[in-house]
C-alpha cells in the first residue's frame, strides 16, 4: 500500500518539476543613478555629465549633458516608459548640445529594458534598437 502511494507521489513531483516558467520576465531594478554611455547608438563624450536617476516613486531626473531634466517613468516587468517633462535651458558648447538632443530624443522612444551580460542597462525601442545604454553609478 505504501509503495504505490510513494510511487504516485514521485511521479506527480517529477512532472511538476518539468513545468517551465519561461514566461516570467526578468526583474530589473532601475532605482538609482546611471551614467549615460551612449544615446541613439552614439557614445557620449568622455567625462560628460550625462546621467539618469530613477527614484522609487516613479520620478525621473538627471543631466542630459548640458541641462538638468525631470519627469516620470513607469516600469512593468521589462516594459518601460520614460516621460521627460521639462529641463533647464542653459547653453553649452555645440558638441554637448548635440549630445543633449540625442539623449532627450531617445527617452520618449524607450519601450522596454534589458540588462547586458556586463551589467549595463539597455533601454530599447519596439524594434529592439538600443536607444540608451546606461551603467550603474557607484555612489
Search tags:
single chain; nine-stranded antiparallel beta sheet; 37% strand; 139 residues; alpha+beta; 21% helix
Tell me what the structure shows:
The protein is an alpha+beta fold. Helices cover 21% and strands 37% of the residues. It has 2 helices and 9 strands. A hairpin with a 2-residue loop joins strand 1 (32-39) and strand 2. The longest helix is centred in the first third of the chain and has 16 residues, at 2-17.
Give the gist of this structure.
The chain is of the alpha+beta class and 139 residues long. 21% of the residues lie in helices and 37% in strands.
What's the SSE blueprint?
Blueprint (H helix, E strand, L loop, with lengths): L1 H16 L14 E8 L2 E2 L7 E4 L4 E5 L4 E9 L2 E9 L6 H13 L5 E4 L5 E4 L5 E7 L3
Antiparallel strand pairs: 1-2, 1-3, 1-9, 3-4, 4-5, 5-6, 7-8, 8-9
Number of helical segments with 4 or more residues:
2
User: What are the low-pLDDT stretches, counting only 5+ consecutive residues below 50?
Assistant: 15-24
End-to-end Cα distance, whole Å, is: 63 Å
Helicity, in percent? 10-25%
Structural class: alpha+beta
**H-E string:** HEEEEEEHEEE
Query: Nearest-angstrom radius of gyration?
Result: 21 Å
Strand content: 35-45%
Characterize the biggest β-sheet: 9 strands, antiparallel
What is the number of E strands?
Answer: 9
Shape: globular
Mean pLDDT across every amino acid position: 85
Amino acid at each position: 500500500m505504501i509503495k504505490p502511494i510513494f510511487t504516485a507521489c514521485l511521479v506527480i513531483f517529477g512532472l511538476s518539476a518539468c513545468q517551465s516558467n519561461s514566461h516570467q520576465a526578468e526583474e530589473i531594478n532601475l532605482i538609482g543613478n546611471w551614467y549615460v554611455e551612449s544615446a541613439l547608438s552614439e557614445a557620449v563624450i568622455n567625462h560628460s555629465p550625462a546621467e539618469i536617476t530613477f527614484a522609487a516613486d516613479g520620478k525621473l531626473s538627471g543631466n542630459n549633458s548640458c541641462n538638468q531634466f525631470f519627469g516620470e517613468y513607469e516600469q512593468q516587468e521589462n516594459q518601460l516608459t520614460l516621460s521627460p517633462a521639462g529641463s533647464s535651458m542653459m547653453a553649452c558648447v555645440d558638441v554637448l548640445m548635440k549630445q543633449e538632443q540625442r539623449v532627450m530624443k531617445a527617452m520618449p522612444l524607450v519601450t522596454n529594458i534589458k540588462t547586458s551580460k556586463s551589467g549595463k542597462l539597455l533601454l530599447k525601442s519596439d524594434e529592439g534598437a538600443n536607444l540608451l545604454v546606461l551603467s550603474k553609478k557607484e555612489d
